[in-house]
Write a structure and sequence with these properties.
The structure is a homodimer of 480-residue chains. In chain A, the strands form three sheets. Chain A has a seven-stranded antiparallel β-sheet with strand order 13-10-12-11-15-16-14, with helices on both faces. A five-stranded antiparallel β-sheet of chain A has the order 5-6-9-7-8. Chain A has a four-stranded mixed β-sheet with strand order 1-2-4-3, with helices on one face. In chain A, strand 5 and strand 6 form a beta hairpin. The radius of gyration of chain A is 23 Å and the shape is globular. With 480 residues, chain A is of the alpha+beta class. The first copy, chain A, is built from 15 helices and 16 strands. At the A-B interface, helix 5, strand 8, helix 7, helix 9 and helix 15 of A face helix 5, strand 8, helix 7, helix 9 and helix 15 of B.
Amino acid sequence: MNDNLNNLLAQLHDIAGEGNVFGHGEIDSRYRVDWTAGDVGQPVAVVRPRSTQEVSEVLSLCSRLGQAVVTQGGRTGMVRGGTARRGELIVSTELLNAIEEIDPSAAVMRLQAGVPLQKAQAAAAEAELSLPMDLGARGSATIGGMIATNAGGNRVVRYGMTRDSVLGLEVVLADGSILESLQPFVKNNAGYDLKHLFIGSEGTLGLVTRAVLRLRPPNRSQSVALCGVESLEQATGMLRYMEGCMGGQVTAFEVMWNSFYVAVSKLPGAPCPLPLHYPVYVLIESLGADPSTDVVRFERALSAALDTGALADAVIAGSGREAHDIWRVRDSIGELLARMKAFAPFDVSLPVGEIAAFVGEVSQHLAASVPGRDALFFGHLGDNNLHIVVELESATEAHPVEQLVYGLLRGRLNSVSAEHGIGLLKRDYLSYSRSVPEIELMRRLKGLLDPRNILNPGRIVSLSGTATTEGETYGSWTIV
Amino acid sequence: MNDNLNNLLAQLHDIAGEGNVFGHGEIDSRYRVDWTAGDVGQPVAVVRPRSTQEVSEVLSLCSRLGQAVVTQGGRTGMVRGGTARRGELIVSTELLNAIEEIDPSAAVMRLQAGVPLQKAQAAAAEAELSLPMDLGARGSATIGGMIATNAGGNRVVRYGMTRDSVLGLEVVLADGSILESLQPFVKNNAGYDLKHLFIGSEGTLGLVTRAVLRLRPPNRSQSVALCGVESLEQATGMLRYMEGCMGGQVTAFEVMWNSFYVAVSKLPGAPCPLPLHYPVYVLIESLGADPSTDVVRFERALSAALDTGALADAVIAGSGREAHDIWRVRDSIGELLARMKAFAPFDVSLPVGEIAAFVGEVSQHLAASVPGRDALFFGHLGDNNLHIVVELESATEAHPVEQLVYGLLRGRLNSVSAEHGIGLLKRDYLSYSRSVPEIELMRRLKGLLDPRNILNPGRIVSLSGTATTEGETYGSWTIV
C-alpha cells in the first residue's frame, strides 16, 4: 500500500469513523457486484458516510486529491454505473437510511438517499398514502439510486418516472459544497429547477443525499387482466381504448410477444391461463378508488372489446390471488434469465408505430446471425419502452449482438436506454440516440459541475484528461 | 439611427425578409405590452423569424454583435420577462405557428413554439385526445412561452406543470446552434435529460422553437361542486378525502378565502350560489371517463362529507351550464382586477400546513400598513400555491407591499414564484426562496450557455459585464 493510499484512508477514517472505511483487503464482496456482473473492478476502498456533512467532507477531500469516486446505492443497476473500476473509491449510501418526515396532510415524505424503495413504500402505506415508484428490485434499490438513474418500472404509464415523484433534492457537488433544494412544493418556478440536472445524471454531476417525494392517495381497487391480441397494432388500439374507458386509472400495460409467453409456459408451475398461439399478450392493470364500480367498469370495457373483435381473448382476475398469478407471467422474466448461460439485455424506446417492424427486423437478423437462440420481446407499450433479451452461449457473443440490435435502431428516432441508463455499458451507443450538439452539451455540463472529473468518471460520457485510473476499456461486459 | 443599428436591421432583413423586421419607429404597440404593463421598454427592433433556421441565424448574428434579445410569445406573462428593455431586440415567435404532426396512436403532437395554447388544444380534441395544459390566457399564451416559463394553471394537481407534458424539445442556443431533442418518448434515459434545463428558464438559456407534447385520453364526464368549509385545515382534509374517493380524477381544487367570495358577490350578475359567511370556499372538479358512474360517485362522496361534518355546505353542478357558473366564481378574478386602480399580485408556494397562518399574518399586517384595501386570497391548494392580490391606490405603493408580503414569507420554506416565474419583477426576491449556492449555480449555468449574456439578460439572475444596455432598474413595476 503506497503513501497516497494510506493518507486517503487515514483521512477517510477521520471523517467517517474507523468502522465505516474499508481498505482494499477488507472490502466485503457485496460492494463488488451489481445485477449485470459478479466480482468486478478493484476499488481502492469503501467509505460509508453517516450524514450529508460527511459526504461533503469526503467529496471535498477527493476533489483535492483528484480521487475518482463511484456512488453505490442498492447495486441493482443494469449498466455498470455503480460498480467500481480500478482505483475508484466507493461511497456507499447504506448508512444514510433514515425516513426523516412524513406529512400526511401535505402528502410528502422527506428521506435520506440510502433508504430502500420498499421501506419508503411501507412508510407511505402506514400513513395511508402511496409512493407510486415501483420496480422489481424494490427490496434493494435505494431512493438515491432511483433518483440518480431516473428509474422507471411498471407504473410509469400512469405515474411517470422517478423524476415525476421528486419535489425536492439535496445534492453534494464534486467540490463538497452542499446544494439543498428540499422544498416540498408541486409548484416552484423560482429560478431554474436545478434538481432536474441531477435526476438521471447517474451520479456524474453530484451525489444525491436527501429528497422530498410526492405521495399519492392509496388505491383501493385492483383490476387485472391478461389478454391475447392478433398484433401489436391491436395492442396499441387497446391501450388507447382502455385509457379512455378507465379515466386515467390504467397503471400498467405490459406487452409480451409470443416467444416470451411460450418460454414462460415451459417453466415448472407455469401460470399461463391463455392458449399459446396469440402473436401478442397484454397484461392490463387498473387501480382505482371504488371497488364497487371500478371492477365492473373494467370488465365491461374488456367485454365490449371482445365483442367488437378489438381483443381476441382475455382472462380477468377474480381475486387478489389470480391477479398475482397474472403478474407472475410478466415477472417470470427473472426466472427465464436465471436459466440462461448468458444473455444480452436491451431496453430501448422507439415510436409506438415502429415497434412491430423493429421487432420483426431484429428477429430476422438474430435468426441469421445467432440461430437457435431464444429472443424474448416484451415491454411497457404505454411508455414506448421495448425490452429485448437475447440468449447467448457465452458473454463473448454479446458485442456482435449489441452491434446488430443497436444498428437496426440507429435509423429511427430512438433511445438506446429507455430506463436503465447509460453507465459504462451503453456509452459507446449513446451517439445512436443523441446528436453531436446534445453530447457536447452533456460534456460541457459535466465539465462545469465536475471539472476534475471525480464523480462516476467515464459513465455516460468520457472526458479527456480525467482522474480515472483505468483505461476506457468497458465497451462490453461479462455475465457470471 | 446610428450605423450599428442600420447594420443590424439590414442583416435581420437578409435573414427574415423585409416584412418581418420592424425598426424602432415601425413597432406595433402590441409588442410593447404584457399582462402587467402597457407601453414599456424601448426595443431597437422586432424580428419575426419564419423557421428554426432563421432563429439560428438571428441569434448567431446577435451573439457576434453582443446584441441583447428578448423572446416574445403571447405576452401574457406576469413578471415582465417578455417585454423589451431599452436597446433589446424582440424576437417574436408569432410566425412559428404550425402544428406539424399529431400521431393519435402514439398520443403525441409536434408543433412550433408560437402556436397558441387554444389552437393546440383544439387540434388535440379533433384527434379525440386532450392536451391537459390549460390556463386563462389560452387564447394568446403560446406553447413556447408556456414551456419557457413552465406555466401552471388550473389542472396541475392532476396533470402537473407544463414540464410534465413536454416529451421533446428543440432549442436554439445563444450562439445560434440548434439543439434538437424531439424524441416523442415517455421514457428516455440516454444521457442527461437536457430539455429540463430549458423548461422554466424563461428564455435565458435558449430559445424554444419546437416541441413534442404528450396527449391524454379525452375526458367524458365532468363533476363540479362549490363547497363552504370552516377552515383551511378542513379544506386540506377534503382534498385528501376527495383524491382518495375519486381515484386520481380530481382535476382542480381551488380554494378561495371569504374576502374573495364576498368581492365576487358584489359584481353585477354575481354567480354566487352559497351564503357569504363561510371562512373558506372550495371549487372541486373531477373529470372522468364514465358519465354513468362518475357523477354518482362524486355526489356520494360529497354527501358523505356533509353527513360527517367534513364539509359545511356544497352545491353540485347539475348541468354543464351550472358547472360553468361555478367556474365563473373563480374566474371572476379578472373582472375584480379590472376594477382596481392598481394592485400587487403574489403567486407563492409554502407548505400546506403553514398557509392558514401565513394568510392570517399577511391580513393583519396589511390592515395595519395599508388599511381599508381589499386583499384577495385564493389558490390551488393541491399544489401548495397561494395567490394574493392586494388592491393599491397607485403603483407607487407596490414596493412596500411586496417588502411586507415577501418579508413574512422569508422565515418559511417558500417559493416567491409558484408558477408566474421570476422575470424582472421578482428578481430582487429570488434569494428569499433560493440559497446562495443555488443562485450561484444558476449563474454558472447561465454563464456556460450564454457567455455573452444576450438571451433575456437580467431576467431571473443578473450577471456582471452584460450586454444589457439599460441599467438594472426594474425592481418594481407599474399598472396601467
